[in-house]
Every structure is written in structure tokens, then in C-alpha cells.
Amino acid sequence: MAPKFGTSGLRGLVTELTADLVTDYTRAFLEACPTGGAVHVGWDLRPSSPAIAEMVIAAIRAAGIEAIREGALPTPALALSSMGTGHAAIMVTGSHIPADRNGLKFYVPGGEITKEDEREILMRIGQDWEIARQPGALTEGAQSAANYIARYVSGFGTDALAGMRIGIYEHSSVARDILIAAIQQLGAQPVPLARSDIFIPVDTEAVDPATRTRLATWCAEHALDALISTDGDADRPMVTDETGTIVPGDVLGALTAQALGAKILCTPVSSNTMIDAMPEFARIERTKIGSPFVIAAMEAALDADPHARVVGFEPNGGFLLGFTAQGPTGPIPPLATRDCLLPILAPLVTAARDGVRLSELVSRLPARFTAADRLAEIPTDRSAALIDALAADPAERARFFDTLGPTETIDRTDGLRLQFTSGEIVHLRPSGNAPECRCYAEADSPARARALVEHHLAKLRDSLG
């Protein structure tokens, strides 16, 4: 797969992310977008990331711009640091994709790059870049991780999780030490588990059965109140209740929005429809899948009303805060980039405050359940062609969705999302940043949602090979 530039920045095989290519994209970003005079550089824990980060730093300095080396750091902590100082940022990460791949995420001083920024960057690729007479300064970052933790300790309080035992599935998450520190500083007892020196590509939307079994076993063995983790670069959370059952990302989003007093939710079409039945929310804005689309909807809401209590979240759990929320012990300022820590902590703090198990907190929500998984190593054009054919041909659609009966609505906002007269939903779409075809389902029970995903993944496998 040739390196690809899109919603999640640049991604490709490590062997193809050469110094020339990395320099070209870095310089194109610097030419196309504002930097505020400096660029913060962070990276995840995959083996190739430090070397690629040094390529990025060299390219920034060659442009005569200051580079701030932040080191291994969660993406939201990097964004918090750069946005707080009015600077740009570049994160070296492949997120949840395998270790033989990597990529770059780009941030302007106001947050994630937009679709328009992407177009401007691509227009500048392939230039002969001049080297500045005076190289930019190199500064070592400091306090970014501590400031990220302090943001939530200040808002929730040092005894917010007192008495709780929280497992931390460390694996190769760049946030693993931050999760332990945050849990401790909020008053809980952290129980670190399964730290890995080998990169493990954890996808919080597609946790395999063996890992699910491990999570449940850990919760029982260690008498945990919850277990938490993230994907590789820590912009997506993973949370289980006390039984080891994973709480889906859009459920974490709904609980977090509820806890913060949000009124307007911006979320992709694939998010759980239970939020439509929650009276706390005045308006739901559905978007295409991808944080740039969620951010655009949030910005539109804030343009219409600068005081709007607006948030965004995705089914992968990433949460974006668009207003200053009031925590139990202090304010939590906006952070309009995908964050893992807020949607981990807010539901746990609510459960602790109410004296209930996390599973009970989840059970209070409207009874709609989602599941998701993916078929890997499928070229995007093949997935898109199949989805287009299903959308265009009712007979093909009936054969593919053969167990679901009549279709009630067809949504082409992003891929093909069908709601059937039974109320069940199946959604197919090509991944925007990997050679994968994703399947989402929604039903009135977790087992039924999972069965729908498994059935239609098998159908995809038969159709796509």
C-alpha cells in the first residue's frame, strides 16, 4: 500500500516513509498551514517512531522554524500542549494499525487540520524545498504529560475515585504511565497489567475474543471496579466494567456528555441511536465518520452560538470538548481533538459519586447496543465498489442482507447504512485510513448486535475474498 494522506494524516508502510517523503509532507504542511512560530513533535511507542520523529524535526528546523521535541506522548497531550502555546504540532503515529506501518498527524494552532488544510498540503507536495540560512531552534518539551494529567485532577478532584481498584491494560499504549499516574492522583488504586515491549496494535472498536476473555479474567482475578486502556497513540479509550465487559466508545461518549452537561452532540452516523432518546440533549448533529467532520459540526454550532454546550464523540470513544465544562472541583477547558482520558474518567467519576457499579451506570441508558468489526487487507476500491453495488441494486441488497427483512431507511452519508423495519441497523463502509472494510450493527441486545456483525462480515468475506 503506497503512503496515503487523508483524514488521519499520512499513513504508509515504514519502508515507504523515507526521509525524503517525510520531509516533503512536513515542509508542505509548514508551507500550507500556520504554525505560530514553532512545531511540537511527539510520537508513539512503535519501533519506527523515534527515527521518523527525528526526520520531522530536521525538516522543521531546515525551514527555519523552531522544533519542540516532546518525546513519547499521547496525541491529546501533544495537542493540549501545542494549542495551549499557540503552536502547530506533528504526531508520529500509526494509531491502531500494525507496527510495520506508521504515519504523521498534523495540528495547526487551533487543533486538527481540516479537509481544506489537507487539500492545501497536497497541492504543495513535490516541491524543491529550500534550506533556511539559519536553522530553527531545537527545544526539549517539558511538563506536557503532567499538564495533561493536571487538567483532569483539577476538574475532578483528588478523591474522585477514592476506594476504587482500576486495572490498566498497559500493552504498548503511549499513555500507559499517564493512566497509572492519573488514576493514582484521583484517589484510586491502579493495577498495571500486561506491559509490552513489543508494539501491539490495539483497535478499540475491534477487540478480538481472546483479548475480551483476558479482560474479564483480569477483572475477576484482581477484583477490579473497571479496567482501562487506549489505542497506541491514546486518542481512543477502552473501558470495561467490573465484569470485564467492554463499554462501547459511543456509550462512553454519551455518559461523558451527560456528566458534563452538554446540550449539543456532534457524532458520526455510525454512533448508537440511543442518544436520540436521551432528553438531556437538545440537538444531535450526525456527520460522516472522521474527527474532521465532527469538528466541523462543532465549529458550526459554536459559530451559531459561541456559548453552546457542544461536544463531539466517535464510536471509537474519542471525545472532543467544545466548551468549558464544570467538574466537581474545577473547570475543564475545551479541547477540540480526540481525547482518551476524559471519556475514561467522567463515567468512572459519576459511578463513584453515585455509589454504583459502572455496569449499573450503563444500564440506566436506553437499551440500544452496537457492535463493530472489520475485514482487513481489503483494498478500498473493492470495498467501495461492493457498497455502491448494494446501494444501487435492491435485489443484490436483499440477497446480501438476507436475514433482516424490509429496509426502512438507506443512508449514504458515509458508506451504506441501512435501518430495517425491525429497528435493527447494519452499516458498511471502507476505512478511510487503512485497507479495511468495516461493519457496524445496532440492535436491542449485545448478542444480536454481535451476531449481525459476524454474519455480515462473513458475507463480506465471501464477496471480497
From TrEMBL:
Residues 408-454 form the Alpha-D-phosphohexomutase C-terminal domain. CDD domains: ManB (cd03088). Gene3D superfamilies: Alpha-D-Glucose-1,6-Bisphosphate, subunit A, domain 3 (3.40.120.10), Alpha-D-phosphohexomutase, C-terminal domain (3.30.310.50). The keyword ATP-binding does not apply. It holds the Pfam family PGM_PMM_II. InterPro entries: A-D-PHexomutase_a/b/a-I, A-D-PHexomutase_a/b/a-I/II/III, A-D-PHexomutase_a/b/a-II, A-D-PHexomutase_a/b/a-III, A-D-PHexomutase_C, A-D-PHexomutase_C_sf, A-D-PHexomutase_CS, Phosphoglucosamine_mutase. Its cofactor is Mg(2+). Keywords: Isomerase, Magnesium, Metal-binding, Phosphoprotein. Residues 4-125, 147-244, 249-368 form the Alpha-D-phosphohexomutase alpha/beta/alpha domain. SUPFAM superfamilies: Phosphoglucomutase, C-terminal domain, Phosphoglucomutase, first 3 domains. Belongs to the phosphohexose mutase family. This is Phosphomannomutase.
